[in-house]
Amino acid sequence: MSDKIPYVFRQNSDFLYFTGCQEPDSVLLMTIDSDKVLCTLFVQKKDPKSELWDGSRTGSEAAAEMFGVDQSLPASDFDSYLSSMVNKYKSNASIWYDNHDIIHNEFHKKISTLGILASTGRCRLPSTSIKNIFHQIRLIKSPAEIELMQKSCDIASEAITKTIKVSKAGMTKHQLFATVDYECRMNGAEFLAYPPVIAGDRNANVIHYITNNQILNNGDMVLMDAERNIAVEIWCSKTSMLYTHQGNMLPTELWIY
């Protein structure tokens, strides 16, 4: 939200992988004690007024069953709950949290406040990023995940092929963006994973060129770098394509291609 303008919310990929929860301001706390693991999901409370404007919330009463965790609590209870865990385990407590990549400022402040306890020996904050462990887990794909990834690639291939066919001089790069976005959505993608790079001429040298407002001129080669998501935004495919809308390439362009 910027002032009164809402923006589409993009959930953190690691959080989404472990919970399937798309709701903002949610926290997953995994408490590990020897071989016992307790997963607690904190979500926003039901609020008729907010839900009238922004859509329904799962609420803490239904979140545990909905997302398959052991228990769910209101997000407002997170501070007191985590503090109670630290007090319970004292010097044996370690808070594994990725403080190298801050996602939510308020959440970071809460964790940092508890981190002060480390100087008293009541808890520890390991310096190793938990993200590395998460990504090792996510590296192994199930057959169902592989199938979804293949579907995403198929959607991408068809969308880009159709976009190339309609490309012609006089079009803006934004029109090409609209075409690939439309084709992806119509074939099952929820939306593009990030703003695509559609560049020609010198703009192709800009790694994250997303303005996409230049006109496609005769002789231009087009660099298209797009990623699309399907299912619940976890599985996506990334495609980079370099092509000329005229169909004929100069020897140097063919070498680059």
From TrEMBL:
Gene Ontology cellular-component annotations: mitochondrion
Pfam families, per database record:
AMP_N (PF05195), Peptidase_M24 (PF00557)
User: InterPro entries of this UniProt entry?
Assistant: Aminopep_P_N, Pept_M24, X-Pro_dipept-like
Q: Where is the Aminopeptidase P N-terminal domain?
A: 1-101
Biological process (GO) annotations? proteolysis
> What is a single molecular function from GO for this protein?
metalloaminopeptidase activity
Note the superkingdom of the native organism: Eukaryota
State the UniProt keywords alphabetically: Hydrolase, Metal-binding
Q: Give the family per the record.
A: Belongs to the peptidase M24B family.
Record-given protein name:
Aminopeptidase P N-terminal domain-containing protein
Which organism encodes this protein?
A: Cotesia typhae
